[in-house]
Specification:
Strand order of the largest sheet: 3-2-1-4-5-6-10
Mean pLDDT: 90
Radius of gyration: 19 Å
Number of strands: 12
CATH topology of the domain at 2-177 and 202-233 and 295-309: Rossmann fold
Number of helices: 11
CATH class of the domain at 2-177 and 202-233 and 295-309: Alpha Beta
Distance between the termini: 41 Å
CATH architecture of the domain at 2-177 and 202-233 and 295-309: 3-Layer(aba) Sandwich
Largest sheet: 7 strands, parallel
Structural class: alpha/beta
């Protein structure tokens, strides 16, 4: 048995590739020429050159693979040219899955995002069945991933053998970029979090996300979505855990979101027109803070198996890795 893993040089993709190797499956990874290969260190995988925007390279990479884990995505809260989100996350996903259908890939796991899951209007936990629309998506990343998931669901209805997983906010080792959640941890460790906004997140160890992918491949129901999450926490609770882990005081000042919003718009304008660097206060992150992003993860726990690693342990692993790697 051989599986192709896309995005294996990234945070979640690297964990997935390692979990698939550990399961006894031979792994081939799709690698762009400019990819940072540090996360593949010590991993026994075959490398296939390719790009989600090059269909011929995708067919070559998929040939001989019975399984496909499509983890690759452009994951950020800002880009100088927003078209990159749609080129990679939407068009790239469609191109890859069309190639998989053409070569006869037997089974596929597609990595979506928790952001594509609906949240009840009056509050409460989001579920796989909660109504959601494009109008509810804040920012190009979430919009592009929502549109990509719609493409995958359409192909599933047409008979493509695909299972969708929606990870919440993963934390842990090898977050080399880092992701927006990882950057939050790094900023806390640097003492750059003097205040907080009242919002919430669902956290999960990246190794549990990877294990969820493997179990989705083994026993997930085709055409179904599964939230891969663990623990719902407020941002204040996350900072309190990080404080216990690092000895750095947690911020005590709670700022209203509307007070931060004008600063975020100003940061966005500077990034777009002056610095051409990611904004210090990402506008889309502030917009998302309007919602307490808490979810019911029971469907995945029941059908695929519950997460095994406590969130506090996962945050500790992230802190140690960032510290050891010189991020903070």
């Amino acid at each position: 048995m051989k599986a192709l893993v896309t995005g294996a040089t990234g945070f979640v993709g690297a964990a997935v590739a390692r979990a698939v190797v550990a399961s006894g499956t031979d792994v081939r990874v799709l690698v762009r020429p400019e990819s940072d290969l540090r996360n593949l260190g010590g991993l026994n995988v075959e490398r296939a050159p390719g790009d989600l925007r090059d269909q011929a390279s995708l067919r070559r990479a998929l040939t001989g693979c019975q399984q496909l884990y499509h983890v690759a995505a452009h994951y950020a809260l800002w880009a100088q040219d927003p078209r990159v989100f749609y080129d990679i996350n939407v068009t790239g996903t469609r191109t890859l899955l069309e190639a998989a259908r053409a070569v006869g890939t037997a089974r596929i796991v597609y990595t979506s995002t928790i952001g594509a899951i609906g949240l009840p209007e009056g509050g409460g936990l989001g579920t796989e069945e909660a109504p959601v629309s494009l109008a509810q998506m804040a920012g190009d990343y979430k919009r592009s991933k929502y549109l990509a998931e719609q493409e995958v669901l359409k192909m599933a209805r047409e008979g493509l053998p695909v299972v969708i997983v929606n990870p919440s906010a993963p934390v842990g080792e090898r977050d080399i970029k880092p992701t927006p959640t990882g950057q939050m941890i790094v900023d806390f460790m640097k003492g750059l979090m003097p205040a907080y906004i009242e919002t919430g997140m669902n956290l999960i160890d990246v190794e549990d996300v990877a294990a969820g992918h493997v179990r989705a491949m083994e026993r997930g129901r085709l055409g179904e979505r599964y939230i891969l999450g663990n623990k719902n926490l407020t941002l204040k609770e996350i900072f309190e855990i990080l404080s216990r882990l690092t000895g750095i005081p947690a911020p005590r000042i709670k700022l209203p979101r509307l007070a931060i919003l004008p600063l975020a718009y100003a940061n966005q304008w500077l990034a777009d027109h002056i610095t051409h660097q990611a904004p210090r206060i990402p506008l889309e992150g502030v917009k998302m803070a309007k919602y307490r992003m808490h979810y019911d993860c029971g469907k995945a726990a029941q059908e695929l198996g519950p997460p095994q690693i406590p969130v506090e342990v996962a945050l500790g692993k992230a802190v140690r890795w960032f510290r050891d790697q010189g991020y903070a």
